[in-house]
Amino acid sequence: MDPQRSRIVLVGTPAYTDPGLPDVPVVANNVTDLAAVLTDAELGGFDPKHCAVAPSTASVEQVGDLLVQAAEEAEDLLLFYYSGHGLLGPRRRDLYLSLAGTRPGRLAFTALPFDAVRDACLGSRAASRVVILDSCFSGRAIGDTLADDAVLGQLEVAGTYTLTSAPANRTALILPGERHTAFTERLLHLLRTGTPAAGPLLSLGDIYRHLHARLRSEGLPEPQQRGTATADLLGLARNRRFGATADTTLGAPPAVDLAKLLEGLHAGLDSRYPRPRAAAVEELADWLTLGGPGRVQAARIALERAAANGLPVVAQTARAALGRHSCSLPAPDRSAAAPALPPDRLGAVRHHQGAAVVLATAERVAGSITDESSRARALAGIAKAWAGTDPDQAERVAGSIADDSRKTEALAGIAASLAGTDPDRAQRLSGEAERVAGNIGDGSRKAQALTGIARALAGVDPDRAERVAAGIIANAKKAQALAAIAGALAGTDPDRAERVARSITAESMKAQALAGVARALAWTDPDRAEWVARSITDDSRKAQALAAIVRALAGTDPDRVERLSGEAERVAGRVSSESYRAEALTAITRALAGVDPDRAEWVAGSIADGPRRREALAAVARALAGVDPDRAERVAGSITDEYHKAWTLAAIAESLAGTDPDRAERLSGEAERVAGSIADGSRRAQALAGIAKLLAATDPDGAERVAGSIADEYHRAQALVGIATVWMGGD
Fold first, then answer.
1. With 0-12 CB in 10 A as exposed, 13-18 as middle and 19+ as buried, what is 433?
2. What is the pTM of this model?
3. Consecutive H or E run containing 102
4. For residue 238, which phi and psi values (nearest 5 degrees)?
5. What is the DSSP letter of 100?
């Protein structure tokens, strides 16, 4: 990396003129200290003249000038860092980065569109382009977080490495006593001190892996990386601890004053929102678990008081931590009592058990399922849920599955989850999955298992993935495997993805695969996506592909959106099969719901197939929830099927949890009542499982209660897995 041919732009917004956007004073420290580290001759080594720090009061135009100039000058590295509130457009769900003068009601004119950052990156000739977003989302108190597939797609910038501070459904955090936001605090600590787990330079991949492990171990939102390609090999700073003995604690955070810790906990416990309350309760337990004996001793009395006031999960974690350190702990000095957690605040806490405990519960429930096939299927889901956060646990659960087909599914799912972070392990698990699949006697189930393996291998070893697919005897299953490979490759290697899709002989599966390629390309190369969509001969799949492009272009090109959505409707109208036509129209409704709800509702109403019409209306209601809750409720009320109505009401409640908690509570209660009225036991259990997952992010206690009410053990296990997946930052 050549510092003289590199350019850096750092943007941080600590204060806002609009009262609707809370100030985040520590963001000023984020930018100042990161600039100091990157330009330190012994660390980043970048030329201070080429590291531009935007003024804290910078306007959209000023930030744009800095970024465009840097993009034009950069030849080696272009780095853009932003810290502040990330906001979504109210209708089109496009991402904006707030600045000092941002007005939430006028984002298009007062905030920095992420599309502008994307365009600057795409227009730069820099060999490496890196975007780091530490968005301190103020949660649902000021709007939606990035909990939307469409918004996540915006972070996929071709040829650019993007690192974000938190998953889609979690907010970035500021911990008491820390100088920076949680993510940047740990990023700076790593850049300043290094790690023995990396080489002489800290690459972007090293940084991501270290921060992912560190933040996860502290119970904090886990960072996400996108579009890595080979960019994660880029060295960003010198590693001061290259060659040192590895830590066993991932670099324990500095000691925290107990009084300040409890002060921060009180603020969390006083929050009107369930998630911050749950996080505050868990923070004490996580802090204790990770601390050394001295810190355990300091927190002992406060933890005992918390346990005595009805926080059994914290108490359980405390006992485990104290047991590990019992040999070095003297009896607590009760004369130096720690500040008490006020009972009135404790009474307001709605704690949840934590993802690990929930998955352990799910495993126990799954173990009691008498039907072997259902038990194996439930355990496979649990193994895949563990994969992203604890691969060892995932492998253990997968190894306990007796059914070879489901064991193969679990191993392939774990491999797919690890493809971007631990490719060697992903390769090993894929090989093991292949060996297990070889034991499957039933040809159809064996082909299905090999399809899952091919999908898992596509992101790690596409050559091997294609060889696995080629070994499938049944043509239909082989086509499914190739379509899965094409879908997995579409975001990283669209040329190969398209080649694989066009190699499929079965026209229906070829159309499905090409539609998948078009969907992936829609976010990065809409022109090519449109060309691929137009080459699809199956009208139903073509309409769905065009709808995906409409969704990707929403908010950026209204004329094209109108043209393509109209074309998609005309193409769908040519589909002779009522079922396939309904499928296409449902996809169009979803695409239009966030852009033109009137038209979306009209399209949904034109669907003759009852279940599909209800599904489409549910999509409209969910899209309207954040901007027009009255209308969202009206649309939900028009859904006659209890299953879809219950799920839709829960989705609206989830969307309103931060802005209108009373209404959200009423709607979630109504969703439960509607679900409970479903006569068919299986569908009732499915509806309740869906409601539990929707509630997980905003009402942890409610989610667990709903899951516990499910009588069917298989669906109860599924519901618990869904809750844990949300808490772990999954989707």
1. buried
2. 0.48
3. none
4. -70, 145
5. T
